[in-house]
Amino acid sequence: MEKGTCRANANIALVKYWGKRDETLMLPQNGSISMTLDGMHTTTTVEFLPSLKADEVTLNDALLADGKEFAQVVEHLNIIREMAKIKTFARVASKNNFPTAAGLASSASGFAALSMAAAKAAGLKLNPQELSMLSRRGSGSASRSIHGGFVEWKRGEKSDGTDSYAQQIAPPSHWPNFRMLTTVVSTSEKKVKSRAGMKQTVETCPLYPGWLSSVNADLDAVRSGIKEKDFHKVGATAEHNCLKMHATMIATNPPIIYWNPATMEIIHLVQVMREEGVPVYFTIDAGPNVKVICQEENMQDIEARLKELSGVKNVHVCKPGGPAETLKEHLF
Ligand code: DP6
């Protein structure tokens, strides 16, 4: 069997995925829309080797010993082994080119790259739709990292998940001056992972039905806003959608508050800049880091003003990025 090496970019949601309707098949309660980030990627090489007695996984050159991360990778390899009808263990090496502290979820790029590389190494020939569904099984948001540009992950209706996959809305070339500035703020408090946070929200938040009843209108607005390149429509809807998601987190029992003072500082600055007439919005995932949404022509000023804030440690500028792809050069 041959080695498979693939690279996938991270993505940030403009309409968030928050809540599962099936935890085994990783089926979402609602659809979501994201932008794939140029240059923030995971590269993964997989080789199935008959000589191995167990799966062997390294992440950023460190061997993953028994633990949650290792177990998730093994579980995902098991899905692929079942699809390919093989029992062989695998050697997996994975590297992120962005710092772990960049405030980006590495699970999206990580499981997209792992799915594509392992499928190739196992001799499976999967189309993008099948790859998206396979990536979804590792981490929901990974289903979107298979495609480049602006991407929608369909909720789907079927209980077997065969209609829950991501599709491209528009390629990166459609809106090349769209920018996402990912700010890194200090993170001292303990973080609740997305998976646990969304489960708790679905189970205990009295506001969750309100989230679900309003998310389809957000999907329609952001989808059409992307097609029309209507920056205000996309930005304003994305910001409101993120605030609604955080409202459900805060109203969960026990509450999950991901924000810290630096998060608030950035939110206020974005509001001030908007009052001054600058087209700028924000979105926030399950953590304190804020992603600032703007267009290239305003980017430099916005970046400079963000860097003036005492709580902001770093700012990474991201353009719309390309799809997951196969590489010829392997990591081992
Ligand atoms: C807030 O995809 O990391 O970033 O499916 O349990 O692995 P699992 O969760 P994950 O959740 C992402 C949540 C979010 C919103 C989003 O990216 O859509």
How would you describe this structure to a colleague?
The protein has eight helices and 14 strands. It is of the alpha+beta class and 332 residues long. The strands form three sheets. Strands 1, 4, 5, 6, 7, 8, 9 and 14 form an eight-stranded mixed sheet that branches. A hairpin with a 2-residue loop joins strand 5 (56-59) and strand 6 (62-63). Helix 1 packs parallel to helix 2 (106-121), helix 2 (106-121) crosses helix 3 and helix 5 runs antiparallel to helix 6. It is globular, with a radius of gyration of 19 Å. The model has no long low-confidence stretch (mean pLDDT 96). Residues 13, 16-17, 26, 32, 105, 107, 139-141, 194-195, 285-286 line the site of ligand DP6. Ligand DP6 binds next to helix 4.
Assign the CATH class of the largest domain: Alpha Beta
- What small-molecule ligands were found? ligand DP6
Which fold name corresponds to the CATH topology of the largest domain? Ribosomal Protein S5, domain 2
From the coordinates shown, what is the CATH architecture of the largest domain?
2-Layer Sandwich
The arrangement of helices and strands along the chain is EEEEEEHEHHEEEHHHHEEHEE
Mind describing the biggest β-sheet?
8 strands, mixed
Could you name the ranges where pLDDT drops below 50 across 5 or more consecutive residues? none
Name the average pLDDT. 96
Q: How many structurally independent domains?
A: 2
**Oligomeric state of shown chains:** single chain
**Based on CA inertia axes, which overall geometry fits?**
globular
Structural class: alpha+beta
Number of strands: 14
Q: What is the strand content?
A: 25-35%
Distance from first to last alpha carbon: 15 Å
* Rg, Cα atoms, Å: 19 Å
* Helix fraction by DSSP (H/I, runs of at least 4): 25-40%
Query: How many H/I helical runs?
Result: 8
